[in-house]
Specification:
It is built from 10 helices and 5 strands. It is of the alpha/beta class and about 240 residues long. It has 2 domains: about 5-180, Ribonuclease H-like superfamily/Ribonuclease H (Nucleotidyltransferase, domain 5, 2-Layer Sandwich); about 195-235, no CATH class.
């Protein structure tokens, strides 16, 4: 029997070299949320997002040294677990830094993008989708448990959409979501820079040099840019 677990991490930054300072998850009506002292200090720019300060973590153990670690590792590494997160590859990379390897996962960001092939949705971040889809829930943004509460409701919407679109049952729809999540997704529009709001296909026809430049920038980035690199390779014919 499969166990779906919704989770989120708050971290010291947005690169694969960063560490978690909070993890929260919900499964079968039960919730968990705890903070830990990471292996490096939280920089001000990260605290400005999740409002977790180094002072708040004084006296707390590191995640690996905590009494929670073995339990969480066992849950997430269980082959019957399906871990659900928004922009899951990042959270998975963060847990991998803590020696936790997730076997099965669903990325609600990739699924949301796949269900919008015409690129009608302007943004795909969790809080934007929360208000776009009018998900009514009392939850603090960028707090790990608050984000998990929104995530659970977003997952329910996406699951129903897959079931209705493909005319399949819940189990088949979940497998479809796992398959979508297993590989990078393609952006249809760009929402920054001189071509903000324009279709990438059109940009590739009139200014391929810009996409080449952007591709090299993404390759050199410290942040996880798997989807962007995949997208740019697609439109550049690499």
């Amino acid at each position: 029997m499969q166990n779906i677990i919704f989770f989120d991490t708050e971290t010291t930054g947005n690169t694969e070299k960063d560490f978690l300072c909070q993890i929260a998850y919900m499964s079968n009506g039960e919730s968990f949320s705890e903070m830990y002292k990471p292996e490096k200090r939280i920089p001000p720019e990260a605290s400005a997002v999740h409002h977790i300060s180094n002072k708040m973590l004084e006296g707390k153990p590191s995640f690996k040294e905590s009494t929670d670690y073995k339990k969480i590792k066992k849950i997430f590494e269980d082959t019957s677990t399906i871990a659900v997160a928004h922009n899951a590859p990042f959270d998975i990379a963060i847990l991998k830094n803590e020696d936790i390897t997730i076997a099965n996962f669903i990325c609600t960001l990739r699924v949301a993008r796949a269900l919008d092939p015409e690129g009608k949705i302007e943004k795909y971040n969790l809080q934007y989708l929360r208000y776009l889809l009018e998900i009514e829930i009392t939850a603090q943004a960028h707090d790990a448990l608050g984000d998990v509460m929104v995530l659970e409701k977003l997952f329910e919407r996406l699951l129903k959409k897959v079931m209705d679109t493909d005319n399949v049952d819940e189990s088949t729809a979940i497998q479809k979501m796992i398959e979508i999540s297993s590989h990078p997704s393609i952006f249809r529009k760009i929402n920054f820079g001189k071509y903000a709001g324009q279709d990438l296909e059109e940009i590739s026809k009139k200014d391929k040099g810009y996409l080449e430049w952007l591709y090299n920038q993404k390759l050199q980035s410290d942040t996880l840019e798997e989807d962007w690199i995949y997208t740019l390779k697609h439109f550049l014919g690499k």
